[in-house]
Amino acid sequence: MISFELRHASVGRLHRRLPSLGACVGSASDRSSSPLPARGCLGLSVQRRFYKRKMKSELKHLAWPFLHSEMVEFFTERPSRDSTAVITAREWPRFVSVEQIRAERYVPGIIWKHGPERRVCFKEEDIHALAFDEPEGHLSHLFSGRLVKVHVGSVEESCVVSHVSADPVDKHLYFVRLARHTAGNVTVVPIPLTMIGLLNSPAYRKGVHVELAMPTVKCEVVGECIPPPFQVDVSQLDYSPPFTSMYLRDLVGLLPEDGTVRFAREYDVNSQEVAWAYEHSKLEEEAPPPDFIDPNWLKKGGRRMPIAARRGFYPQQ
Asked: Which is nearest to 160 in space by CA: 106, 108, 97, 227?
């Protein structure tokens, strides 16, 4: 912290630097004898405003070193980013149906993998705070991309959300499935991406569109902790027609240095794009290939979903 002596010395330097108000205005007898201010000096009210503005600017100039040191100290002492969440649950009672659990304003769930299955119930308000972390948002990507420590009685389970049955529009959870995460075993976790430095991006200053190419990136975690969302810094992203990209290799420095986290092997770090800078009017549209199948119209088994019950009413895919 800044000592009192340093602050007092700075204020003393300020008073020596500024002129005296009485030296310019004069004594009271001089002001009463002459209706106008002395030659070369301003009026009393004008001089006071000038003096206040001068003192304010000098104080700002002298306060910057102290403010800078306090900012450095504040950000140095801040704890490291951690996305781990803690939630309390209770055992799923025997012979109790899912409908009965939902009627009691609880959300049923199962903890599986690396051990016996454990049936649990979460309070609706507790699990909703993790699943829908934005007032007007849908199901959060961070819900399945963070470590969740579940306290069931005296037992603590370190888990990752592997499946969610929910209505993202009405914000209603029906069922949650969690997989245990243990150190030494590989767990594939979709880590969310967050864009920072947009206002300083040369591409953004040129008026082009800058966005993330993917909301999450799959990572293989073998350590005890799961990293927080990756901050994609686009402050150096420039634009050149038709578009400019940032690749996954630019995020390698964000991985933990202990080597317990790496990107999924399905990615090519040199060709996988994570951020784009492009202009809508200069991108040419390309027709999809003839064998393209829209994944939104596929069932769980891989078969195509019928659009309409009456054949021929809608065009077939």
From this structure: 227
Q: Any residues with CB less than 8 A from the CB of 170 and at least 6 apart, and which? A: none
Tokens of 231: 């901050």
Identify whether 242 is preceded by a cis peptide bond (ω within 30 of 0): yes
Per the model's pLDDT, the better-predicted residue between 42 and 126 turns out to be 126
The model's pLDDT over 219-270, given as tens digits with 9 standing for 90+, comes to 999 989 999 999 999 999 999 888 899 999 999 999 998 889 999 999 999 9
Distances from the Cα of 293 to the Cαs of 26, 84, 128, 272, 297, in angstroms?
89, 38, 34, 22, 8
More confident position, 313 or 126: 126
Q: Which two tokens stand for residue 107?
A: 């959300």
| Phi, psi (deg, nearest 5) at residue 58 | -70, -40
User: 3-class SS at 29?
Assistant: helix
Question: Which residues sit opposite 288 in a β-bridge?
Answer: none
Copy the structure tokens of residue 71: 């900012």
Beta bridge partners of 161: 178
